[in-house]
Amino acid sequence: MSRRVRRKLARRGKEKVDLPSYPEIEDEKLSLDERGVVDWTRLPDDTVIQLFSCLNYRDRANLSSTCRTWRTLGISPCLWQSLDLRAHKCDTSTAALLASRCTNILKLRFRGAESADAIINLQARGLREISGDYCRKITDATLSVIAARHEALESLQLGPDFCERISSDAIKAIAVCCPKLRKLRLSGIREVDGDAINALAKHCCNLTDVGFIDCLNVDEMALGNVASVHFLSVAGTTNMKWALVSQHWIKLLNLKGLDVSRTDILPSAVLKLFSSSQSLKVLCALNCPSLEEDTSFAANYSNKASLFADTTKRERNVFSDWRNSKKDKNLDEIMTWLEWILSHALLRVAESNPQGLDNFWLSQGAALLLRLMQSVQEDVQERAATGLATFVVIDDENASVDGGRAEAVMRDGGIGLLLNLARSWREGLQSEAAKAIANLSVNANVAKAVAEEGGINILANLARSMNRMVAEEAAGGLWNLSVGEEHKGAIAEAGGLKALVDLIFKWSTGGDGVLERAAGALANLAADDKCSMEVAVVGGVHALVMLARSCKYEGVQEQAARALANLAAHGDSNSNNAAVGQEAGALEALVQLTRSPHDGVRQEAAGALWNLSFDDRNREAIAAAGGVEALVALAHSCSNASPGLQERAAGALWGLSVSEANSIAIGREGGVAPLIALARSEAEDVHETAAGALWNLAFNPGNALRIVEDGGVPALVHLCSSSVSKMARFMAALALAYMFDG
After folding, report:
1. Strands 15-19 and 8-12
2. What is the pTM (predicted TM-score) of this model?
3. For 672-690, what is the HEC assignment?
4. Alpha-carbon distance 193 to 521, whole Å?
5. Which of 348, 473, 529, 717 gives a 20 to 30 Å CA spacing to 669?
6. Measured between alpha carbons, how far is 109 from 718 in angstroms, rounded to an integer?
7. CB neighbour list of residue 475: distance below 8 Å, 6 or more residues apart
8. How far is residue 403's CA from residue 673's CA, in Å, rounded to a whole number?
9. CA dist 706 to 58, 173, 657, 700, Å?
10. 145-189, pLDDT tens digit by residue?
């Protein structure tokens, strides 16, 4: 059979890239044809490259390793024109490994100072756009070197968190080193002085988009010298002298859009700007108290500028109208900027959560965020999804959301939009969409809608992601959805249990957030008998014990202990109780967690030991692991703690005291006095467990005497006569009867 040699061409725009061919593969292809086997390597090269372009960087690299043909296609320059490093730890050594693929990179996104320091090692001198967040620790030196190494830079954005260590010196370096700069947006700089701004005006003649956002001081007069600027944002910037602004910004003859959101701008300054500027078309002024308090301002301002001839249309449809209208370059430029500005402003307002905005969020804000999620700009979509995740939360500590806001998102079709974003191949969108779905799902009605629209399967798939940020938010979504009994079976059917257990093994170190969410979801699911058995089958017992033993983060410890408690709560219907007790190190770890300084951890650990003590072997093993001493100490220390902790501490001692040896040990360790103190609690659940423990202890004459000597008789008599709990009254009566039986 003759071999055919073909030269392969991959297209990059109009340019043809000549790729090597491997003739020995041709014979293999023909034989595969004869056997009727599909050969993926026979796809046209441009089709393979198009498929590669829809994958994340990790998947591209994995597919490239499958054969020589795909290895060659996988390093095509057109696939490496943009790079998003936000989900990855990118230090100097990592950047050096990536350098060979990044020579043609045009767009880069990164997170944190360490990644910023490593950027220069990518050797991507042709970079056009750099965008970074979590930039608090980035210094002037780092930013200056980045600017010096990337002279072709056209766009630089750092934020939305504050760049506290960047000064005007770095801005001057950017101006001198990056003459092609068109867009500069920086957040949280302490002072942007006149020299820095004048350097931008002098060296960056193409600079059309400037944002000095949330800065302490910006030289207003110097900004009037940046004649090339079309769009300017000083949102959140303090100490602006608005009288000077109206005098000096008249010189900005090309200014089309101005963002003064979250500032103290006065109505008079706004009216003067519009009256003196022939070019200004759009003013964004969200959450400006002086404008909102002036009742006459809205009427005066409403006719100053309009983007559309038909002003009768509702504001909430303005972006839809634009996207459906005929293309207009000038309008497209304005609306693209406005999308970015509004997404940033709304997120900032949602984060600060000022009082008095409920009506705004319900009538306009939620719908506007949903419109922004339909933008073609990826960072606008991300920020809008983050805004949705943020504005519904009213109490971070207790994970409570505003039901009205959550259901407003649902009514406007937000669930479907978020799930579509979550299906994206872009991991940044996946992460932010999953976060919004997770927060919204705290509301039971939204959780139901998410489940009905296929959200559980989507989140279960995202939980398998190799991207830690994506997996963490997906696990959070499953955690919140698993609160509802009706969703637990669906999560199990979608493979969510195994995905959550796998997450624990995958991120066993360095992933506290994902571990807490995965363990929390498993804890909820383990409360269901059927799910509890499946958690054990897929390795959940081992995974959770591993967390209880080795993780030092209290959130993970609490959820791992709670999950083990729920797994052990089905003693009559499955064997998980015994399985947890037999797992190496499980009981010792739980005993150790009862000594935690965090009440939540101690409560869940004591609850787990209580449930486990129903098994005879576990009961003795807990005592052998120091459980009696630890639980007596816990009972002593929790007199002023929450009723939940008190109930579980007394309950665990009640469970251990079933054994005569343990009962004697509890009395000897001083366990009688704290149980009597807990019997005086105002919570009926605590009455029951304390009285139950004292009843068991009263079987032993020595303990009975201790109960009398420590004042237990009046406490038990009081329970008999006044406790709301019938069980507590019964237990107290039994304790008294056995104490005096002899």
Report:
1. antiparallel
2. 0.86
3. HHHHHHHHCCCCHHHHHHH
4. 51
5. 717
6. 67
7. 463, 500, 503, 514, 517, 518, 521
8. 46
9. 66, 79, 15, 10
10. 999 999 999 999 998 889 999 999 999 999 999 999 999 999 999
